[in-house]
């Protein structure tokens, strides 16, 4: 391999042996455990809100999500959540805490540009796509569901 | 028992996300966006409610529930107000999450220093 000169054709192959191989199984196990634990913690919170604060099964989701978002924002501020993200991958990105992390970290990253142009403008830099796609999909599907209910 | 199912279902959704990241080489933003759309589609066929009944926070904590709540609020209001109701209700159930994410994200960004 080291005899022939590097060119565009063999670069991919030459570089391949130096790249770390992603261990799919290990990453999935990590994501499963961390993601599962975040959901168990969420279940614990919602049971707590149902038990002590007069919420019912349906609306206990609101304070639970708000609490998780608060904790994730603080953890991002302390730099803990990004370490968790490096370990767990999707396990920390897929729960709603990952949404809060993307908002807080984007805002923190641009803090030096000021409160208005830095923090407030970049708050939804990463999370904006989630809201846009969510709203567009829900709007289109909502129209279909409504038409469907009119016909039948 | 709910805790066990919350762990398995929540973890399982994260594993799907991890596979999309590793095998299909998507960015986290793409994964999150697809999951929100997937949640809305599952709710359109009334599947997601069954999952929530069954797994509790295992289904409400992953970002898929954001898409589910968007569509759910829209459909609730469209029953009362027709087409306008879709726009009125779309943020009804998710407003707690979005409002607190904006508030806490802003406060943390103001009071903390960026790390790394």
From TrEMBL, chain B:
Record has Transferase as a keyword: no
Keyword Membrane in record: yes
Keywords: Membrane, Transmembrane, Transmembrane helix
Sequence intervals crossing the membrane: 6-24, 83-112
InterPro entries documented for this protein: Spore_V_AE, SpoVA
Source organism superkingdom: Bacteria
NCBIfam families: spore_V_AE (TIGR02839)
Protein name per UniProt: Stage V sporulation protein AE
Protein species of origin: Halobacillus kuroshimensis
Lineage summary: Bacteria, Bacillati, Bacillota, Bacilli, Bacillales
